[in-house]
Amino acid sequence: MKNTIKLIKNCLVLMLFTSMALLSCSDDFTNRPSEDSILLDDYYETNVQVATATNAMYNRTWFQFHNKFFFAIGEIGSGNMMSFSSDVSAMRNFSITGSDQELLAGWRSLWANVAQANSIINFLEDRVGPQVDEEVLQNTIGEAYFMRATAYFYLVRLWGPVPIIENSLDYATNPLINTNRVEDVYELIRRDYQQAINRLYEKTRSGNYPQNAKVSKGSAKAMLAKVHLYNGNYQEARTLAQEVINSGEFKLLGGAELPSKSFADLFTYQNNNNEESIFSLQWKVNGVYGNASNCNTQFGISNGTISTSNASYGGVFSPSQDILGLYDSNDLRRRETIMFPGTTYPEILAKNGSNFGPLVVPPADQIGGQNAGAAIKKYCIGVVNGDVTGKADAWAMMENCTYIMRYSELLLIHAEAVLAGGASTSDPAALNSFNAVRNRAGLSSLSSITFNDIFTERRKELAFEGDYWYDLGRIPRSQAIAIMSAQNRGDQNNPAYFTPEEADFILPYPSNDVAKNPKLLDPPVPYVFN
């Protein structure tokens, strides 16, 4: 055991694809040490030490996945956003290749999450002192299972067959490894979320927001419900979603239980880790690059005169022309999702020349960015403004959390699971969930709903939150291609249309890693579970 632990320390829990692109990497395919690797050597002596072992897995290990790749694929690829910036624009016309640097960064970041989770799952239990409470230990291991499942859920939806690695040390001396079948990857994901459900604390999300930051048993049930929905296991998805709803753990901001809040409050710094957050990335401004979020800069307005960021640039991502007409004028989400010309945002401090004041969105031809004629409102919180925004680091990155899943999505999953592939439903349970999301947006209830109603509502509710690409990927390819081919992916003056092919829905493996592990291109093999 001692030799094994020493090997862990010396190798920093080496694994295939472990490091993140922001850190230096050696030329050896398997030797990519991360500054955030868990060192399991005589450290975990108290409950606090064990409970904080997963802290970096809520931010730093996700950074290079989230910083650009998350939006370049999930939003530009899906047609919600557009950009002409060369580092993120490849999916605008489905031209991404294995040499794309943001693709490599996203891939490595997800594998870094797998590596970190593996080190905790496999070795933490043997490295805690007798004074550590069992429930604290099991909750921490449950968090690791949750993170590994979530990383794999992204990997399989983006790349299809990928290697299943449950113990990174198994491959420390054997960097050549086959991919595994998609159905086996999903089996691992389901097992991992179930392990998380078995181990994580039960919680009720309260108004004490810092206590809501980490995932819970309900978080794992909600994510597993989503996995079941993707797999067409509607009864399982419905059962889990209903359990989460009945638990009362989560609530809609601006819904019947929290009428003093609103949809707008979801994307403010003060409401990080609110009652609606099922799982969100926890960004921290601590002077270290890669620990905070760049969304405020990348989404806001920067036209040389008006800026909503402390950075010298901005507006790398913008709304697509296609999404500008998505919302009805009376939909409360419209103003809080997209910044249209002439709209005033008293809560956003902006710089106008040398002056500072509430943001008034300039005319369409003066917004800047990508010449979209509008800008992205979600996650744009403005120039640093005390407790309203929190602080920014030297790179103008901030601490507003990024949602991976909100309660509103769980309600829409529940409605879709009740529909269960049928043509329509007027089932009261489905309508209650679906209409709760609509009503919060100021829209009237529907008495019967179809899949298209739910699918469209998901796009309106979750726009710019990195999910629409995966929604398009789970419907029939011909239907998705028809939707995407009709999207205007140009700017406000130059319409542009592109038609994806079926192969475009699965990304290429990074060329760098294929060169080191050619087996990535071999046919996937079955995985034997213990």
Describe this structure in words.
This protein is mainly alpha-helical and 530 residues long. It has helices at residues 2-11, 47-51, 63-77, 101-123, 134-159, 182-199, 217-230, 234-247, 295-299, 332-337, 407-419, 428-440, 451-462, 468-473, 477-485, 511-516; strands spanning 81-82, 277-281, 306-307, 318-319, 338-339, 344-352, 355-360, 375-376, 402-406. It has a three-stranded antiparallel sheet, with no helix packed on it. The protein has a two-stranded antiparallel ribbon with strand order 1-4. A hairpin with a 2-residue loop joins strand 6 and strand 7 (355-360). The two termini are 21 Å apart.
Query: Structural class from helices and strands?
Result: mainly alpha
Discrete helix count: 16
Q: What is the distance, rounded to the nearest whole angstrom, between the alpha carbons of the first and last residues? A: 21 Å
Q: Quick one: CATH class of the largest domain?
A: Mainly Alpha
Reading side by side through the largest sheet, how are the strands ordered? 3-6-7
Question: Biggest sheet, open or closed, and with what strands and sense?
Answer: 3 strands, antiparallel
List the uncertain runs. Answer: 1-38
Pfam families: SusD-like_3, SusD_RagB
Main location: membrane
Family: Belongs to the SusD family.
InterPro entries: SusD-like_N, SusD_RagB_dom, TPR-like_helical_dom_sf
